[in-house]
Specification:
The complex is a heterotrimer of chains A (192), B (214) and C (225). Chain B has 8 helices and 2 strands. Chain B is an all-alpha fold and 214 residues long. Chain C has 6 helices and 9 strands, in the order ααββββββααβββαα. Classes of the chains: A mainly alpha (192), B mainly alpha (214), C alpha+beta (225).
Chain lengths: 192, 214, 225
């Protein structure tokens, strides 16, 4: 139980995918201009991550033990088909959300956070439940970082920022400061 | 004429359309592995190999790949090259491979590579595609190296592991930690924007001067 | 086979065929590179492990993998997946020296994985090597960069348990001087070793009845080279 909690908090805060591993930066910088879109994309990503964790575990347990070299290819194929499926689902259920996410939905496939999750979980030898908890932590952590940045960006729209610094440069510097704040979470589990 | 064209494709990737500074692509590996110059260069070389190799293949077989399955084919090709790069690095330089860790397989997810296949290699002849890939990959390598070098010099007082400043230098540790990656790239982008604005202003001034003369 | 062919609607057979051929070629390429590099990779890993074991157990020249099965420690050539394994170290004469125990646990930033050498006869830790960590550069990474700290683990009593104390206040043989500015990382290392020791100590046989060295390296060979 302790172990699961450590995995969850580690993925959520201490080793936040976006702010310490730099995974999923494309949507982080691209979509984070509105709070609502960020939250929805974050949830979609979390969901894809959960599915990915299950797929990765199945692949690892039943196929990749015999053929470790197929790891990358099989992960990608599975993730790509999962995302395709979710894309169709969202298109059907909520056309507005589909429009809001624009080109970033297909890009979840090439979102390194998803593939990163599968690879990290494998490298650390996580079992089924550990993988699920890890995916949950990573997904919520991703959403958290996305929403935090979106909130800050919405605020900064209202302030008088020099034209030169506007855009990616400023977002990166904001992200840097956020990342510094998240460094404060290190040592949560070993200080006792 | 032909020569100029391919040189043009090569050069644009290095500066004007630099994948990192101008297009802001491929950020994940960009920031994650640039805490030292050597890691940055290793990552840059691996990406270089994957990008040039896949561009060559995609462009050569571009008429044979049906449009409907092109993305899947691109991904299969890219993933194959990445796996080759992964095992080669693991066999030849296990130390570097350990440092880069999971970020080598993640080259697959580098938007830069898939983007170049879709936007360029699948539409143009092999020679142009390879020149384009060489340019983009060199631009990416250059960006990785500059970021890695800045962060290692400030954060560790060294470059490629050689101490530069002696014992009295108090390293700016934050630079090799994650926040340093964001901050350094932010500042570099700022400089890039500033340079571009200045250049545009200068070109406008020249145009205005020409107009008034005419 | 020009541009018009690609824009026309190809049959689904052709789509499937293209993907199948692409997959097949990619599979051949991947298996090729895997088979070519595998010997080097396996050799690298074995050498790395061997170097680490020799480092944490001074005087050892030969090693064998040991696992705990059915209440006793047995020698295995190839441990099963996910089976905890330790290494028995023997000197050039084949005499048992100590165990090298891999252990891991949460550190300041992320999991710390380490290997420590343990001599059951003296009940002492005789060496420690960090295998993997992402501790803060300049502070937490002193757990392997600071030679003084690593040297703390060269003759360390495990009874009643290892304790990390403030730098300079070490009094007993079971105490470790922590690192200024990296107390948490230092304490994490100590805790990881303590936990692994508690876990393994009841599985280890009484001192003197350790598993014998099977398939010893031929000393003649080593002498000849």
């Amino acid at each position: 139980m302790d172990n699961l909690l450590w995995i969850f908090v580690s993925a959520l805060l201490v080793n936040n995918f976006v702010l310490t591993y730099f995974l999923g930066l494309c949507p982080f910088l691209g979509v984070s201009n509105s709070l609502e879109t960020s939250a929805r994309l974050g949830l979609a990503t979390t969901f894809v991550m959960l599915v990915t964790a299950v797929c990765a575990w199945l692949l690892n347990t039943y196929i990749l033990v015999h053929a470790p070299y197929l790891r990358l290819i099989s992960f990608i194929v599975v993730i790509a088909s999962t995302v395709q499926f979710i894309e169709m689902l969202i298109k059907k259920l909520s056309p507005a959300l589909f429009r809001a996410m624009g080109i970033f939905l297909p890009l979840i496939t090439t979102n390194c956070a998803i593939l990163g999750l599968a690879i990290f979980a494998t490298n650390r030898g996580y079992g089924f439940w550990e993988g699920i908890v890890y995916a949950l932590g990573a997904g919520i952590g991703f959403t958290l970082a996305l929403v935090l940045l979106a909130g800050l960006r919405e605020e900064s729209e209202l302030s008088d920022v020099p034209a030169l610094i506007k855009g990616t440069a400023m977002n990166l510097i904001i992200a840097g400061i956020l990342s510094m704040a998240f460094m404060g979470f290190a040592g949560l589990f070993s200080s006792t | 004429m032909k020569e100029n064209l391919s040189r043009e494709e090569f050069l644009k990737g290095i500066w004007r359309d630099n994948p990192v500074f101008a297009q802001v692509l491929g950020m994940c590996p960009m920031l994650a592995v640039t805490n030292s110059a050597i890691n940055a260069v290793a990552m840059g070389m691996a990406t270089f190999f994957v990008l040039v190799g896949s561009s060559f293949l995609v462009s050569t077989f571009r008429h044979l790949i049906p449009k409907q399955v092109r993305i899947s084919c691109f991904i299969i090709i890219i993933a194959t090259f990445v796996t080759i790069a992964d095992y080669t690095l693991l066999a030849l330089v296990p130390k570097v491979h350990k440092e880069l860790g999971a970020f080598i397989p993640l080259i697959v997810a580098n938007c830069l590579i898939l983007g170049r296949q879709e936007a360029f290699a699948s539409r143009y002849p092999t020679k142009l595609a390879v020149m384009d890939a060489l340019g983009m990959a060199s631009g990416f390598l250059l960006a990785l190296f500059s970021l890695g070098a800045v962060r290692e010099i400030l954060g560790d007082g060294a470059l490629f592991g050689f101490n530069l400043f002696g014992a009295n230098f108090e390293p700016w540790v934050i630079m090799i930690l994650p926040p340093g990656g964001f901050l350094t790239l932010g500042v570099i982008l700022l400089f890039f924007n500033w340079f571009k604005t200045k250049k545009d202003e200068f070109l406008e001034d020249v145009a205005a001067a020409q107009r008034s003369e005419g | 086979m020009n541009a018009p062919a690609a824009t026309a609607n190809p049959s689904s057979l052709r789509l499937v065929l293209t993907l199948a051929i692409a997959g097949l070629l990619s599979g051949i390429a991947i298996i090729g590179i895997y088979e070519t590099t595998l010997p080097t990779i396996t050799a690298n890993k074995a050498r790395e492990l061997r170097e680490a074991v020799l480092k944490v157990l001074p005087g050892v020249t030969q090693m064998q993998a040991l696992v705990h099965r059915d209440g006793e420690l047995v020698v295995v050539a190839e441990p099963a997946k996910d089976e905890p394994v330790i290494y028995g170290g023997h000197d050039a004469q084949g005499e048992f020296v100590g165990y090298a125990v891999p252990a891991a646990g949460p550190g300041f930033q992320d999991t710390i994985a380490l290997l420590y050498g343990y001599r059951p006869g003296d009940r002492e830790v005789v060496g420690m090597e960090i295998l993997e960590s992402r501790e803060t550069p300049g502070l937490g990474d002193k757990i392997y960069k600071d030679a003084d700290f690593v040297a703390e683990f060269s003759a360390l009593r495990v009874d009643p348990e290892i304790v990390a104390v403030k730098k300079g206040t070490k009094t007993g043989p079971n105490q470790v001087d922590a690192i200024t500015g990296a107390t948490i990382s230092a304490k994490a290392v100590v805790r990881i070793i303590n936990e692994a020791h508690t876990e393994w100590s009841e599985r280890l046989p009484a001192p003197g009845s350790e598993p014998m060295l099977e398939a010893p390296d031929s000393p003649v060979d080593e002498g000849a080279q």
